[in-house]
Design brief:
The protein is an alpha/beta fold. The protein folds into two domains: 3-102 and 288-307, Rossmann fold (3-Layer(aba) Sandwich), CATH 3.40.50; 104-280, Rossmann fold (3-Layer(aba) Sandwich). It is built from twelve helices and twelve strands. The strands form two sheets. Strands 8-7-6-9-10-11-12 form a seven-stranded parallel sheet, sandwiched between helices. A five-stranded parallel sheet has the order 2-1-3-4-5. Helix 1 packs parallel to helix 12 (289-307) and helix 5 (104-120) crosses helix 7. The radius of gyration is 21 Å and the shape is globular. The chain starts with a strand and ends in an 11-residue tail after the last helix.
């Protein structure tokens, strides 16, 4: 029987579920209820045929995969796979499958929550109240303002829908605009420069690739309104964090709502932690029961389909 290893089931969600029982029908299952940081991953999956991955902190470098000679499938519970060296996996004959769209609603709701929190300074006012204060200060109304959505996949589309629902005008940017997509999404596509210049809120929803690394940097912040809010629920690498800190300190933008960071967990001494114009979340936009359940089902389906000879949701087809 194939050996199926879940090396990073933390926080624990797989144990005792119907999906764990399904995996046990497919092979010998081993579950580790802690993160697999760095080299800790290798001894856990050294003899695995399938790695069932729950956390983006499990880094599948070429070196790691080369030391796992039996590994044939990495089934990721998640839509992102920037923690895997895709080229190396392909060269080593390892298939990568993901769970697209499993957390679309959850992440889009978090993006909306972050922009509302920053605009209305909810977290800051809550802190003031709990420490004896009674801070009366102006907030920003989002109804009637412009929402700029960068990336129009399933999450970006849902954020556009939610933005319109609270009365915002929506403009979008994508690598592949077309009149057909504009009609389908009911949105106007703009250049990145034009979107940044006219948006009151900018929300990021593209994958982390070499092409999108530091997509928002010093030049881009200089194009934004001083009253603008930046929201990132995608990947930390999309933003030049040094440039973000400078823009927040200099008043180039008004604030930021962030669920993702270049280094995670965010270092305790990171300047973003000390800023009053940021709202920070520990990369947990996907962590709602509905998304977790959907993701687990799809990830197990991917394992079953692969073992039956017809892989699904593959990101590195031959």
């Amino acid at each position: 029987m194939p050996i199926i290893v879940a090396p990073d089931n933390y926080p624990p969600v797989l144990g005792g579920t119907d999906e764990e029982k399904r995996l046990k029908q497919l092979g010998e299952v081993r579950v580790y209820e802690s993160e697999a940081i760095g080299e800790e991953l290798v001894p856990r999956i050294a003899d695995a045929d399938v790695a069932y991955i729950m956390r983006g902190s499990s880094i599948f470098s070429r070196s790691v995969m080369q030391r796992c000679p039996k590994l044939k499938l990495i089934s990721v519970l998640g839509a992102g796979y920037d923690h895997i060296d895709v080229q190396a996996a392909s060269e080593l004959g390892i298939t990568i499958s993901t769970t697209p769209n499993y957390a679309t609603v959850a992440v889009a709701e978090l993006a909306l929550s972050l922009m509302l929190d920053v605009a209305h300074r909810i977290s800051r006012k809550d802190h003031e109240m709990r420490t004896g204060g009674w801070a009366h200060e102006y907030a920003s109304q989002l109804c009637g303002k412009t929402l700029g959505v960068i990336g129009t996949g399933s999450i970006g589309q849902k954020v556009m829908q939610l933005g319109r629902a609270i009365g915002m005008s929506v403009v979008a940017w994508t690598f592949h605009p077309s009149p057909e997509r504009a009609r389908e999404y009911r949105v106007e596509f703009a250049s990145l420069e034009d979107l940044l210049g006219q948006s009151d809120v900018v929300s990021l929803h593209v994958q982390s690739t070499p092409e999108t690394r530091n997509l928002i940097g010093k030049r881009e912040f200089s194009l934004m309104k001083p009253t603008a809010i930046l929201v990132n629920t995608a990947r930390g690498a999309l933003i030049d964090e040094n440039a973000l800190v400078e823009a927040l300190n200099n008043g180039q933008i008004a604030g930021a709502g962030l669920d993702v960071f270049v280094n995670e967990p965010l270092p305790v001494d990171h300047p973003l932690r000390k800023m009053e114009n940021t709202v920070l979340s520990p990369h947990n936009g996907w962590m709602v029961p509905e998304a977790t359940y959907t993701g687990m089902v799809t990830a197990v389906d991917n394992v079953a389909n692969f073992l039956q000879g017809h892989p699904t949701n593959v990101v590195n087809p031959k």
